[in-house]
Specification:
316 residues; mainly beta; 24 strands
Protein backbone atom coordinates (compact mmCIF):
# COMPACT_ATOMS: atom_id res chain seq x y z
CA UNK A 1 0.00 0.00 0.00
CA UNK A 2 2.84 2.35 0.82
CA UNK A 3 4.35 1.87 -2.62
CA UNK A 4 1.00 2.47 -4.31
CA UNK A 5 0.49 5.62 -2.24
CA UNK A 6 3.94 6.97 -3.08
CA UNK A 7 3.40 6.25 -6.77
CA UNK A 8 0.07 8.08 -6.65
CA UNK A 9 1.66 11.13 -5.01
CA UNK A 10 4.49 11.13 -7.55
CA UNK A 11 2.00 10.86 -10.42
CA UNK A 12 -0.01 13.83 -9.11
CA UNK A 13 3.17 15.90 -8.72
CA UNK A 14 4.26 15.13 -12.27
CA UNK A 15 0.81 16.00 -13.61
CA UNK A 16 0.81 19.27 -11.67
CA UNK A 17 4.25 20.13 -13.03
CA UNK A 18 3.12 19.33 -16.58
CA UNK A 19 0.06 21.56 -16.22
CA UNK A 20 2.24 24.40 -14.92
CA UNK A 21 4.64 23.99 -17.85
CA UNK A 22 1.77 24.05 -20.33
CA UNK A 23 0.37 27.17 -18.71
CA UNK A 24 3.75 28.87 -18.86
CA UNK A 25 4.08 27.93 -22.53
CA UNK A 26 0.56 29.09 -23.36
CA UNK A 27 1.09 32.61 -21.97
CA UNK A 28 4.70 33.77 -22.10
CA UNK A 29 3.95 37.51 -22.09
CA UNK A 30 2.11 40.12 -20.05
CA UNK A 31 0.01 41.65 -22.82
CA UNK A 32 -0.17 42.10 -26.58
CA UNK A 33 -0.99 45.08 -28.76
CA UNK A 34 -1.37 45.69 -32.48
CA UNK A 35 0.83 48.30 -34.17
CA UNK A 36 0.67 49.05 -37.90
CA UNK A 37 -1.24 45.84 -38.48
CA UNK A 38 1.16 43.58 -36.57
CA UNK A 39 0.44 42.03 -33.18
CA UNK A 40 3.38 42.41 -30.83
CA UNK A 41 3.92 40.94 -27.39
CA UNK A 42 5.27 42.64 -24.29
CA UNK A 43 6.59 41.97 -20.81
CA UNK A 44 6.29 44.75 -18.24
CA UNK A 45 9.75 45.57 -16.85
CA UNK A 46 8.87 48.53 -14.61
CA UNK A 47 5.97 50.85 -13.84
CA UNK A 48 6.68 52.73 -17.07
CA UNK A 49 8.71 50.41 -19.34
CA UNK A 50 8.23 47.20 -21.34
CA UNK A 51 10.29 44.87 -23.47
CA UNK A 52 9.21 43.17 -26.67
CA UNK A 53 8.90 39.41 -26.24
CA UNK A 54 7.31 36.39 -28.00
CA UNK A 55 3.95 34.62 -27.66
CA UNK A 56 5.69 31.28 -27.12
CA UNK A 57 9.35 30.28 -27.42
CA UNK A 58 10.46 29.76 -31.00
CA UNK A 59 7.05 30.58 -32.49
CA UNK A 60 7.18 31.77 -36.10
CA UNK A 61 4.67 34.55 -35.49
CA UNK A 62 6.03 37.71 -37.15
CA UNK A 63 6.15 38.20 -40.91
CA UNK A 64 6.69 40.95 -43.46
CA UNK A 65 7.54 44.46 -42.29
CA UNK A 66 7.43 45.10 -38.54
CA UNK A 67 7.70 48.50 -36.85
CA UNK A 68 8.34 48.63 -33.10
CA UNK A 69 6.49 51.55 -31.43
CA UNK A 70 8.16 53.97 -29.03
CA UNK A 71 5.25 53.63 -26.61
CA UNK A 72 2.43 51.17 -26.04
CA UNK A 73 -0.71 51.44 -23.87
CA UNK A 74 -2.34 48.73 -21.76
CA UNK A 75 -5.12 48.99 -19.17
CA UNK A 76 -4.82 52.76 -18.97
CA UNK A 77 -1.03 52.81 -18.57
CA UNK A 78 1.35 54.01 -21.27
CA UNK A 79 4.69 52.21 -21.32
CA UNK A 80 7.94 53.14 -23.06
CA UNK A 81 9.45 50.35 -25.16
CA UNK A 82 13.10 50.10 -24.07
CA UNK A 83 14.23 46.58 -24.93
CA UNK A 84 13.90 43.90 -27.57
CA UNK A 85 13.96 40.85 -25.32
CA UNK A 86 15.97 37.67 -25.67
CA UNK A 87 14.63 35.46 -28.49
CA UNK A 88 11.86 37.98 -29.24
CA UNK A 89 11.76 37.27 -32.99
CA UNK A 90 13.90 34.13 -33.03
CA UNK A 91 13.40 31.99 -36.17
CA UNK A 92 10.64 34.23 -37.55
CA UNK A 93 11.40 32.89 -41.00
CA UNK A 94 9.07 35.27 -42.90
CA UNK A 95 10.17 38.51 -41.22
CA UNK A 96 11.58 40.79 -43.95
CA UNK A 97 12.20 44.13 -42.21
CA UNK A 98 12.33 45.57 -38.72
CA UNK A 99 12.35 49.20 -37.61
CA UNK A 100 13.47 49.80 -34.03
CA UNK A 101 12.95 53.27 -32.45
CA UNK A 102 15.40 55.31 -30.41
CA UNK A 103 13.59 54.44 -27.19
CA UNK A 104 15.10 50.94 -27.38
CA UNK A 105 18.47 50.80 -25.63
CA UNK A 106 19.15 47.06 -25.87
CA UNK A 107 18.59 44.25 -28.36
CA UNK A 108 18.69 40.99 -26.41
CA UNK A 109 20.35 37.68 -26.98
CA UNK A 110 19.26 35.84 -30.14
CA UNK A 111 16.53 38.43 -30.65
CA UNK A 112 16.55 37.89 -34.44
CA UNK A 113 18.43 34.60 -34.58
CA UNK A 114 17.98 32.86 -37.94
CA UNK A 115 15.47 35.32 -39.34
CA UNK A 116 16.68 34.15 -42.72
CA UNK A 117 14.52 36.50 -44.85
CA UNK A 118 15.33 39.63 -42.84
CA UNK A 119 16.76 42.11 -45.35
CA UNK A 120 16.29 45.51 -43.76
CA UNK A 121 17.09 46.61 -40.21
CA UNK A 122 16.60 50.23 -39.14
CA UNK A 123 18.24 51.11 -35.82
CA UNK A 124 17.80 54.63 -34.44
CA UNK A 125 20.10 56.70 -32.26
CA UNK A 126 19.60 55.76 -28.62
CA UNK A 127 20.46 52.09 -28.96
CA UNK A 128 23.38 51.17 -26.66
CA UNK A 129 23.81 47.40 -26.72
CA UNK A 130 23.51 44.63 -29.32
CA UNK A 131 23.74 41.43 -27.31
CA UNK A 132 24.95 37.88 -27.90
CA UNK A 133 23.79 36.41 -31.19
CA UNK A 134 21.21 39.17 -31.74
CA UNK A 135 21.31 38.88 -35.55
CA UNK A 136 23.13 35.55 -35.79
CA UNK A 137 22.21 33.61 -38.91
CA UNK A 138 20.30 36.45 -40.62
CA UNK A 139 21.52 35.24 -43.99
CA UNK A 140 19.42 37.69 -46.04
CA UNK A 141 20.78 40.84 -44.37
CA UNK A 142 22.97 42.78 -46.81
CA UNK A 143 23.76 45.98 -44.89
CA UNK A 144 23.48 47.37 -41.39
CA UNK A 145 23.91 50.91 -40.08
CA UNK A 146 24.86 50.79 -36.42
CA UNK A 147 23.99 54.03 -34.57
CA UNK A 148 26.73 56.14 -32.99
CA UNK A 149 25.18 55.56 -29.55
CA UNK A 150 26.04 51.84 -29.56
CA UNK A 151 28.87 50.92 -27.20
CA UNK A 152 28.54 47.11 -27.10
CA UNK A 153 28.57 44.64 -29.98
CA UNK A 154 28.23 41.29 -28.26
CA UNK A 155 29.61 37.88 -29.06
CA UNK A 156 28.29 36.42 -32.33
CA UNK A 157 26.05 39.48 -32.76
CA UNK A 158 26.19 39.30 -36.58
CA UNK A 159 27.81 35.90 -37.13
CA UNK A 160 26.72 33.94 -40.19
CA UNK A 161 25.14 36.99 -41.82
CA UNK A 162 26.33 35.53 -45.07
CA UNK A 163 24.97 38.31 -47.35
CA UNK A 164 26.32 41.25 -45.31
CA UNK A 165 28.73 43.22 -47.52
CA UNK A 166 29.84 46.18 -45.42
CA UNK A 167 29.66 47.47 -41.88
CA UNK A 168 30.67 50.68 -40.15
CA UNK A 169 31.35 50.27 -36.43
CA UNK A 170 30.56 53.43 -34.42
CA UNK A 171 33.15 55.37 -32.42
CA UNK A 172 31.74 54.48 -29.00
CA UNK A 173 32.41 50.75 -29.30
CA UNK A 174 35.38 49.56 -27.22
CA UNK A 175 35.17 45.79 -27.76
CA UNK A 176 34.17 43.85 -30.85
CA UNK A 177 32.88 40.64 -29.29
CA UNK A 178 33.93 37.05 -29.79
CA UNK A 179 32.76 35.97 -33.23
CA UNK A 180 30.80 39.20 -33.68
CA UNK A 181 31.11 39.15 -37.49
CA UNK A 182 32.48 35.64 -38.01
CA UNK A 183 31.46 33.72 -41.13
CA UNK A 184 30.16 36.85 -42.86
CA UNK A 185 31.44 35.47 -46.14
CA UNK A 186 30.26 38.42 -48.29
CA UNK A 187 31.77 41.13 -46.07
CA UNK A 188 34.05 43.20 -48.30
CA UNK A 189 34.83 46.14 -46.06
CA UNK A 190 34.74 47.00 -42.37
CA UNK A 191 35.52 50.32 -40.71
CA UNK A 192 36.99 49.91 -37.23
CA UNK A 193 37.02 53.26 -35.42
CA UNK A 194 39.52 54.83 -33.08
CA UNK A 195 38.14 53.95 -29.67
CA UNK A 196 38.03 50.18 -30.13
CA UNK A 197 40.44 48.62 -27.62
CA UNK A 198 39.87 44.89 -28.11
CA UNK A 199 39.12 42.83 -31.20
CA UNK A 200 38.05 39.63 -29.50
CA UNK A 201 38.63 36.02 -30.49
CA UNK A 202 37.13 34.99 -33.85
CA UNK A 203 35.69 38.50 -34.39
CA UNK A 204 36.07 38.39 -38.19
CA UNK A 205 36.95 34.74 -38.67
CA UNK A 206 36.09 33.28 -42.09
CA UNK A 207 35.16 36.65 -43.62
CA UNK A 208 36.44 35.28 -46.89
CA UNK A 209 35.64 38.37 -49.04
CA UNK A 210 37.39 40.91 -46.80
CA UNK A 211 40.30 42.42 -48.75
CA UNK A 212 41.92 44.90 -46.37
CA UNK A 213 41.72 46.00 -42.78
CA UNK A 214 43.13 48.92 -40.80
CA UNK A 215 43.40 48.34 -37.08
CA UNK A 216 43.40 51.74 -35.34
CA UNK A 217 45.96 52.97 -32.84
CA UNK A 218 43.51 52.56 -29.94
CA UNK A 219 43.49 48.75 -30.22
CA UNK A 220 45.73 46.94 -27.73
CA UNK A 221 44.61 43.32 -28.24
CA UNK A 222 43.83 41.24 -31.31
CA UNK A 223 42.30 37.95 -30.15
CA UNK A 224 42.84 34.36 -31.16
CA UNK A 225 41.64 33.60 -34.70
CA UNK A 226 40.38 37.19 -35.01
CA UNK A 227 40.87 37.30 -38.80
CA UNK A 228 41.62 33.64 -39.42
CA UNK A 229 40.73 32.27 -42.87
CA UNK A 230 39.99 35.69 -44.35
CA UNK A 231 41.20 34.20 -47.60
CA UNK A 232 40.91 37.38 -49.71
CA UNK A 233 42.71 39.59 -47.20
CA UNK A 234 45.68 41.18 -48.99
CA UNK A 235 46.62 44.17 -46.81
CA UNK A 236 46.61 44.81 -43.08
CA UNK A 237 47.73 47.74 -40.95
CA UNK A 238 48.34 47.05 -37.27
CA UNK A 239 47.99 50.09 -35.01
CA UNK A 240 50.73 51.53 -32.84
CA UNK A 241 49.22 50.43 -29.50
CA UNK A 242 48.74 46.76 -30.31
CA UNK A 243 50.58 44.82 -27.61
CA UNK A 244 49.24 41.28 -28.12
CA UNK A 245 48.24 39.29 -31.19
CA UNK A 246 46.52 35.99 -30.39
CA UNK A 247 46.97 32.49 -31.71
CA UNK A 248 46.22 32.12 -35.42
CA UNK A 249 44.95 35.73 -35.62
CA UNK A 250 45.73 36.02 -39.34
CA UNK A 251 46.34 32.35 -40.06
CA UNK A 252 45.06 30.94 -43.36
CA UNK A 253 44.99 34.46 -44.83
CA UNK A 254 46.93 33.02 -47.73
CA UNK A 255 46.54 36.01 -50.07
CA UNK A 256 48.18 38.39 -47.59
CA UNK A 257 50.95 40.29 -49.38
CA UNK A 258 51.41 43.44 -47.31
CA UNK A 259 51.49 43.89 -43.54
CA UNK A 260 52.29 47.16 -41.79
CA UNK A 261 52.98 47.37 -38.07
CA UNK A 262 52.95 50.85 -36.57
CA UNK A 263 54.01 49.51 -33.16
CA UNK A 264 57.57 50.53 -32.30
CA UNK A 265 57.75 47.66 -29.80
CA UNK A 266 56.95 44.36 -31.53
CA UNK A 267 53.60 43.02 -30.28
CA UNK A 268 53.70 39.76 -28.38
CA UNK A 269 52.61 36.98 -30.71
CA UNK A 270 51.37 33.89 -28.93
CA UNK A 271 51.45 31.25 -31.68
CA UNK A 272 51.44 31.20 -35.49
CA UNK A 273 49.56 34.44 -35.94
CA UNK A 274 50.38 34.80 -39.65
CA UNK A 275 50.20 32.39 -42.59
CA UNK A 276 53.25 30.37 -43.49
CA UNK A 277 54.02 32.20 -46.69
CA UNK A 278 57.03 33.81 -48.30
CA UNK A 279 55.05 36.36 -50.32
CA UNK A 280 54.05 38.72 -47.49
CA UNK A 281 56.32 41.61 -46.51
CA UNK A 282 56.26 43.53 -43.24
CA UNK A 283 56.92 47.25 -42.84
CA UNK A 284 57.84 48.47 -39.37
CA UNK A 285 58.49 51.92 -37.85
CA UNK A 286 61.80 53.60 -38.47
CA UNK A 287 64.32 52.55 -35.82
CA UNK A 288 62.53 49.34 -34.84
CA UNK A 289 64.03 46.90 -37.36
CA UNK A 290 66.49 45.49 -34.84
CA UNK A 291 63.70 44.63 -32.40
CA UNK A 292 61.60 42.88 -35.04
CA UNK A 293 64.53 40.90 -36.44
CA UNK A 294 66.03 39.88 -33.09
CA UNK A 295 67.14 36.27 -32.83
CA UNK A 296 64.29 34.14 -31.55
CA UNK A 297 61.67 36.77 -32.41
CA UNK A 298 58.43 35.40 -33.86
CA UNK A 299 58.45 38.24 -36.35
CA UNK A 300 61.86 37.28 -37.62
CA UNK A 301 60.74 33.68 -37.97
CA UNK A 302 57.48 34.53 -39.76
CA UNK A 303 58.78 37.19 -42.14
CA UNK A 304 62.49 36.31 -42.33
CA UNK A 305 64.24 38.73 -44.71
CA UNK A 306 61.02 40.47 -45.71
CA UNK A 307 60.95 43.04 -42.87
CA UNK A 308 61.76 46.62 -43.87
CA UNK A 309 61.80 49.91 -41.99
CA UNK A 310 59.47 52.67 -43.11
CA UNK A 311 61.49 55.84 -42.66
CA UNK A 312 59.90 57.83 -45.47
CA UNK A 313 58.00 60.12 -43.09
CA UNK A 314 61.27 61.16 -41.48
CA UNK A 315 62.94 62.17 -44.73
CA UNK A 316 63.11 65.91 -45.42
Amino acid sequence: MERVYCFGVLKRLLMTAAVCMLAATAVAYDFSSTHKGKELYYDITSAITVKVTYPSYGSDYASGDVVIPTEVANNGTTYRVTTIGNNAFRTCSSLTSIAIPGSVVSIGEYAFHKCVKLQSVVLESGLVSIQYGAFDGCSGLTAISIPSTVTTIGNSAFSYCSSLTSVVIPDGVETIGNGAFSHCISLISVSIPVGVVTIDNNAFRDCSSLTSVVIPNSVTTIGNNAFRACSSLAEITIGSSVATIGDYAFYDCNNLTSAVSLAATPPLVKYEAFPQSDKCSLRVPCGSLKAYTAEGSYWNKAFSQRIVEDCKKQLR
